[in-house]
Every structure is written in C-alpha cells, then in structure tokens.
Amino acid sequence: MTYLSYPMYSKTLLYLLFLSFVFGACNPPANTSDKPKLLTGTWRAELDIQDQKLPFTFEVAEVDSMEYEVHLINGEEKLLIDEVSVEGDSLIMPMSFFDTQIRAKIYGEKLQGVFIKNYAEDYRLPFTATYGEDYRFIQSSNQEAEGFEGKWEVQFEGDSIHSVGIFEQQGDYVTGSFLTSTGDYRFLEGNVKGDTMMLSTFDGEHAYLFEARMQQDGSLQGDFWSGKSYHNTWTAVRNEEAELPNPNELTYLKEGYDKVEFTFPNLEGESVSLSDEQYQGKVVIVQLFGTWCPNCMDETKFYADWYRRHQGEGVEIIGLAYERKDDFDYASSRVRKMIEKLDVGYDFLIAGVSSKEAASESLPMLNRVMSFPTSIFIDKNGQVRNIHTGFSGPGTGVYYERYVEEFNELMDKLLAEEANV
C-alpha cells in the first residue's frame, strides 16, 4: 500500500475541496434557495375522522408574496379564509374567527398535515390534499344511482324530536341539509353511488360526514360522524309534509317572570345591563351565541347586515357570547376577531361558557336554553314578545327565506309600535 506524503496529501485535499465548491455552486441542493409555494387553483382535501374519509374542496388565490386567500367550498357556499401563509415548507391556515387551524407540509401538488382545534386538548385530525382535483366523494360517472331528492322525515338515534332532511340531486351529485329543532347542518355536498348517498361539510370548525343507504321499502338507514369522536345512527322516510316543532314555542319565560334581566361584562370588562339607558324605549334583540358555532355565525351575518340598514330606527342587538373557555381574555379576543371578520356593528357581552346548562343558569327566567343560537325579541316597553330557538340558515333554501320573511314581519311590527311614556 502506498501512502501520500503530508505535502502531497494537503494539496490533494485542497484540490478536492475546490472541485466540490465549483460543482456545488453550479448544482445547489434542491429546495435550499427556493421556498415552496402553495399552488393556486382547486384542491381536494380529506380529513380522517373515526376511520372514515371526509372530503371537501378549496380554492387558493395568491394575494401577496407567499400570502394567500382560501375559500372552503361546500355546495353553493364559499367560506373565506384570509390569513393563509407559507412558513418554510409548511402551510399555515388559521380558520378565520374559529380557534382552529390547518398545518401541513407542502410537497408540490400534495399537502399532508393536521387539522387542529387550539382550544381542545389533543384535538388533531389527519389532513391531506391533492392539487387539481375537483370532486367530492367520487368522480362523475354514468352509473345508475338511486334517487334521494326531496324531503325526508329523519329520526336521529336518541332524539325525541324528529328532524327534516332536504336534498337536491342531479345524476350522482347531491346537495342539501338537515333541519333540526336546534338549527341546521348548513351546506352539505356529496354524491350517490348505487344505493348509497354520501354527504360532507367542513367549515373550519365542524367536520360532518353523513351516509345513507336506501332500503328495499324506500326508507333510509344512515350514519353520522362528527369530528374526532361523535357518531350516531339515523333513519328516514319520505314525507313532503314533514315539519319541525314551532321554534317560537320551545323556549319561554317561566311562570312568575315577565321580563329578561341580566348584567354581563362587555369586551372592555365593564358591566352592562339590559336595563341601561341606552336600551330603554327601543326594540332589543338578545342573541345567545358562540363564536365556535357556525350556525350562530350564519345568524350573526344576517343580523349584522340587517342592523346596518336599520340601526337608526330605535333598535339594538346584544350578543351574549358563551365561549369555549371560562377565561374573559380568551372569550373577548374570540369575539373581537369575529366582529372584525364579519364587520358586526352591534354590542357584545361575555356571558359564560359554551354549554346550554350554563346558559340556562345565567338566564334563570327562561325555562331552558336548548340551542345556540337562540334569540329573544323585546319590545320598546321591555316585554318579551318572542323567543326563537335555532336558526335556519342559507343552506336550508326555502326555510331560510321563510325565516327572513317572518323576522322582517315581526321587526316591522315591533318598530312601528309606540313606547309607553
């Protein structure tokens, strides 16, 4: 074996280092200088929930260098997510005013990561997405599919009150929603494959997945998965006459009470009461809601728009926020973000935590609070004229239109009345 002398060894080493530098400069390692970009256009995503795949689609647009806007798509709905960024090789997607986010690694036309609920301990759902795909459960086919369109009387296991399913179908593509006595399941989108209907929605907070199998007698047997752990079964029969219980009769004042009274802190921590001068002699809507509740956000969008057009007519709206944590700073920060995102001009108070039991305790004059949202309509003399449980949002079509008509009729009547001097 021949060994190089020390001077010869040093020269050889320097030469090798020089070659390495030259060729390394000409061929830099991949991705050392180029930051991954999020491809603009349509993506198809899946969340893994309880061994099931929940699909949804979203659209990406670049608004600035490495800053993006995303629209979550559920049927006719497009929900704006406008604080999306790329950090290193990762996508960071806070879900608007919800205390949730998606974090995912970017692999060109693939994303892989997790959906996280920040306020909940150890709440993560696996998330993947593929660029350029634009379908829900199955790509369009010419295979024969059962017909699920129309109105269905639905019974969820454990519920004493039936719900209503409304579906529209074109070929193997289907949209719709479920209406319940406490609200609706918003915009659902999916497909029919043979005798099975599959529907899903993802709005940044809730992840819902429905499956229904057509039986020989024309009825449905179904499953419902929600998020990390909730599962229920349901059945349905066609019934074009199916209706929900009257939402104006489910919550009411207990015997012995004729008014609603409360005192809660506003977003600055100052105590505010319904009896304060600013609310006297005016029509007041008291809205029980939470920023975590998408159905509540549908109602808030409607109220915010209506209030902008009518606030000078002797009306006020007070939002009572029941939030995920019993922490004033946390709760007020969530409400502030919601106000900013939805451009809401009416008042908000921090009323408690997000449970119907806590809400009922905070308003002991009510027989119960069975839903977020719930709205209390008070006339110019401080008398409760109506209490409406739930909200039929825009995903319910004609039911939303019916609600808007009834709301406007009630408000026109209350605003036209004179206050007792």
Protein architecture, described:
The protein is of the alpha+beta class and 421 residues long. It is built from 5 helices and 24 strands. The chain has helices spanning 6-26, 294-310, 328-342, 356-362, 398-416; strands spanning 41-49, 52-64, 67-74, 77-87, 90-94, 100-107, 110-117, 124-131, 150-156, 163-170, 173-180, 183-184, 188-193, 196-202, 207-214, 220-226, 230-238, 263-265, 271-273, 283-289, 315-323, 347-353, 374-378, 384-389. Residues 1-33 have low confidence and may be disordered.
Biggest sheet, strands in spatial order? 1-2-3-4-5-6-7-8
Shape: globular
Tally of DSSP helical segments: 5
| Parts with pLDDT < 50 across at least 5 consecutive residues | 1-33
Could you state the order of secondary-structure elements as H and E? HEEEEEEEEEEEEEEEEEEEEHEHEHEEH
Query: In what range is the share of β-strand residues?
Result: 35-45%
How many beta-strand runs?
24
Intertermini distance: 114 Å
Describe the sheet with the most strands.
8 strands, antiparallel, barrel
What structural category do the secondary elements indicate? alpha+beta
Helix content: 10-25%
Average pLDDT confidence is: 92
Rounded to an integer in angstroms, the radius of gyration calculated over CA atoms is 27 Å
What key phrases describe this protein's structure?
421 residues, alpha+beta, eight-stranded antiparallel barrel, eight-stranded antiparallel β-barrel, globular, disordered N terminus
